[in-house]
Amino acid sequence: MKKGVKIFSVELTLWILTLLIIFFSIAVLRYSIFKRLKSNSAPAFLESEKIQREVFGKIMPHHDIKIAGSGSNLPLVKVLASIYRQINPQSEITVYESIGSSGGVKALRDGVIDIGLVSRPLKDGEKKYGFLEIPYARTIAVIGVSSDVLDDGISTKELIEIYSGRKKRWRDGRWITVFQRESSDSTNEVFFRFLPEFRKANEEAYKTHRFRVIFTDREMLDAINESSGGIGPVDSGAIVSQRLPIKQLKINGILPSYENVENGLYPYVKTLSFLLRKDGTNEAKEFVEFCLSAKMSEVILSQGYLLPKK
Amino acid sequence: MKEKLSIQNIAQGHEKFVLPRMLPLIVLLLVLISTISIYTYFSINIGKLEDRGRGVAKQLVYILRVELSSKPYLWKYNTAKIVEFAKSYLIEDRDLWAVVVTTANDEIIMEQPVRRREKHNPVIYLSENLDLGEERHATVWVGMSLARVKREALSILLPLFFAGFSMALGLYFYVKKIVRDSNLKIKSLLEEIEEARQELIRVNRNLEERVEERTSKLQEALLELENSRNEIAKLAAKTQVLNEEEKRQIARELHDAVGQALVALRLNLDLMERSESSEEKEKIKMDTLNLIENAIEETRRVVSNLRPPAIDSLGFEESVIRLVEGFASKSGIESDVSINLHGGKLSNAVEIALYRVVQEAMTNVVRHSHAKKVVVCLSVIDSNAVLEIVDDGIGFDFKLKDGFGGCGLKGMKERIEILGGTFMIETKLGKGTKILVKIPYV
After folding, report:
1. Quick check: ipTM above 0.90?
2. Which domains does chain B have, with CATH numbers?
3. SS3 assignment, position B341
4. What is the pTM of this model?
5. Lowest CB count within 10 Å: A44, A230, A234, B13, which one?
6. Yes or no: domain A139-269 corresponds to CATH 1.20.200.10
7. Topology of domain A64-138+272-302, CATH
8. Are B116 and A104 within 8 A, CB to CB?
9. Torsion of CA A249, A252, A257, A261, to 10 degrees
């Protein structure tokens, strides 16, 4: 009986030791993981639902005009600003490099610029700021190709095949160098609106890094211009205003021209707008009004842009 | 003690002792393999996520620093595009949860995508500061989701559990097999020990029996030796007595025969001296001569009794043959004498003793046996002279004859035993008598 009790005690001790080892091992591991997670947990301000960026920035009194936003606007706005400076030499007007439509909205929200430039309709989240959206021009979204490309036109099917990676050569056998914009680009969005298959091919190419992605209009124009057999979505206005040797392809046999846009044959057009805060400066409003004047409409048209629909 | 040495008990004892103690170890193994491996996997992967997250943050800080340098005024409004650019070219991480850029005042200037921490989807945030000179412009926060790691860790739980379970089971059965093999070996050894023990007991028992037997034999030998000593002492005493008796007999016979004759001779010589007549002197002279003759005869008889004269004159073998044949011719009993000593020479004492035995035996045959034939055989076997005297007479009842007490048998026996020999007699009524004498002849 005594022997039995002794054996039981040894077994019990072993079990207790085993459970202790398991418990402490797991506890130590859990603690180490918890400690690491804790040290890398999200900062408190990220947890907060109160998003500070939605707070309007105050506009301090000033007289100069700061303009920034979508790169599609820049060639035209720079021309308009230049004319404005000539007419109003005392004015101080600065057109910043592209920060995108979204960047323009945010900068305007924060009060760091006076005029925002957008090349796409405002998103729901942006409409709540109550900005004044003033369309001042339109530009034709085109499929631009390098000057060495002999093709004059392209079908939407071929376009989709190119961006799907199925079509790799031009008709003359030259390799196609494909450039694509990020998905949120306004020129892309114009094509996506009418060509869902093109959106799909683009997104797939974007995910698989099939082609080089360009993030600004300026760089896209340079890329197409300087490459052999290059192709990419660009704005017609930018090509014309800067006199770039980039060919604008017919799409399904339709030339991207003022007439074809006006008669509805060529639907790929995007509107360029100014954004103004309601509490914006008078100088900013004056510049916008200047751009909307009849004289400037002529300038707009002369730069290869279209006037907005009335 | 017996219970302890029981082979079955020991074997079962080992199993009962070792296997229950194995269970905690097996459980420990199972838990350690299945659980701790997962924790370790989880921990290692968290480390990897941290490294990757930190790497992403550094990349973004690098790009933002370039942006900050080229657009010192509006750089932060282009961060969304920069992050997208970075994500498309630089950041390829399926665990990337969110990228947040904040100012030095913790103001969020970019968050892509806008995500909040989910309770069941822990996210770790790695940060990197964008400093230019001593001024802090921004901090890049990269959120890495642990969902995949968690999912993978859980997905390997089952295989690991099975692996741990299999290993634990394998270990259990391996140990069980070792214990069983050990038990078999122990059992075999114990059986060998038991066999050896039994053998030892058997040998001990035999040894004891042999010692006992030897002791018994030794005691018997000692007893026999003691008896022999006593017998020798008795014989020595008897020999002394016999010698004394023989001396007395010789003295008496010399006194009676020779002494009386000498006295008579002296008297006759005195008478002759005193006698005056010649006739008387002649008569005395004749008487004296007769006396002398008688004395000589008597002396010869006495001497003959001491040692048979035939032995000296004829030799031992011939004297024995003559003795037997003499008896046979007087009694008419057929005799057969065979003596073959193989050239050996018996001592005088032995010759006399054997001669007297033959003489006494033949006397008994003639007087009592009514035998028709008697066979006397004397030979040498090994170093003993063996004498057999066999008759086909009526025999006698040895007990009724008072053993060796009658017919001079005792005298014969004593005479032989004094010389270290043995005397035996075999007889039965109607079946004749056989006397067997064995005596060292040297």
Report:
1. no
2. 1-176 (3.30.450), 314-440 (3.30.565.10)
3. coil
4. 0.55
5. A44
6. no
7. D-Maltodextrin-Binding Protein; domain 2 (3.40.190)
8. no
9. -140
